[in-house]
Amino acid sequence: MNIILLSNFCKKRGSIDICVPSAMAWLVPGVALVSALLVWAGYAVGTYRAEQAQREAVAAELKNIVGNEREQIKIAKAEQRAQLDALALRVARLQAHLMRLDALGERLVGVGKLDAREFDFHAEPAQGGLEEGPLATESVSGIESSLERIDRLLADREVKLGMLEDQLANRKLIHETSPSGRPVDKGWISSTYGVRIDPMTGKKAHHYGIDFAGAEGTPVHAVAGGVVIRSGKGSGYGNRVEIRHPDGYVTIYAHNEKNLVKVGDVVSKGQVIALLGSTGRSTGPHVHFEVHKDGRKVNPRKFIRAP
Q1: pLDDT value at position 254?
Q2: Coil, helix or strand for 2?
Q3: Under 8 Å CB-to-CB from 99, ≥6 apart: which residues?
Q4: Which of 107, 126, 129, 249 suits 221 as a labelling partner, its CA being 20 to 30 A distant?
């Protein structure tokens, strides 16, 4: 089979030769164009796939970042809840601390006989002043620092209040155990301390106590707290009670109708220890009241005048 190609370059009739220059003029650009199209298509496909892969990688990275952020948020929320729980516990402890201080303060007001209106432990502290513009919100760390400072202040106040309570308690103890006041609520002084005319002999004699006359059976009170060292009949004293107190003091209550305490009993100030009578060397119902200091008899007048 013969192929005859004709062109302007092939002028001879009956030629069976292919005109290469003319064919190449069309073939080379066509091949180049096809090659360019193929290259461009390959580049486009490669670029698309690369971009797709990049987008997928970016999306995966973003998803990973979001997951990490969510995990960090969970951790932060858990830490925040833990901090809030710790702060709530601190606040509860401070409230309990304040309640103890309030109770202690109220006891001190009662013991010291202070003005309850001036020392009102249930009232908020009086404060005031002008505000100089808005302030920044307190951070958790700042709140913790403030709570620690308040805790230290409360501890300091508690120690000082405790010391004050001890001092007031000691003062009250001294008052309770020091002789003061009268041994009877009702009655009159029928004989004083010192030289007097003895009612039995009519001669001058030294009287070492103060006699309080009254109705028989009148309650006789201890003028101070202490320990009973004698309770029974004594020569001339009739029924008597002796009580030892701190600092070397001893008080004696004589001529009782009946003793109401026994040796070894611990008595408190104002406690009824006997009933007024006229036993022993006596001319009528009365209580003979003596005070000894370190074994020496002293005038009870200064003690019965004391509050």
Answers
A1: 95
A2: coil
A3: none
A4: 107
**CA atoms of 196 and 189, how far apart (whole Å):** 14
Contact 192, 176 (CB under 8 A): no
pLDDT tens figures, 75-94: 878 887 787 777 777 777 77
Nearest residue to 10 (alpha-carbon basis) of 1, 19, 20: 19
Q: Which two tokens stand for residue 223?
A: 């003028």
User: DSSP states of 170-211 as a string?
Assistant: HHHHHHHHS--S-S-SS-EEEE-SEEEE-TTT-SEEEE-SEE
pTM > 0.70: yes or no? no
Question: Cα–Cα distance between 7 and 19 in angstroms, integer?
Answer: 8
CB atoms within 10 A of CB 287: 31
* Structure tokens that stand for 125 in this block: 């502290």
pLDDT tens-digit profile of 193-210?
Answer: 988 887 777 788 889 999
Instruction: Assign 3-state DSSP to the chain and report helix, strand, coil percentages, each to 5.
Output: 45, 20, 35
Please determine, for residue 74, whether its predicted confidence score (pLDDT) is greater than 80. yes
Between vectors from CA 262 to CA 258 and to CA 263, what angle results, nearest 5°? 135
Q: How far is CA 64 from CA 40, 57, 78, 228, in A?
A: 35, 10, 21, 89
Give the chain's length: 307
Judging by beta carbons within 10 Å of its beta carbon (0-12, 13-18, 19+), is residue 39 exposed, middle or buried?
exposed
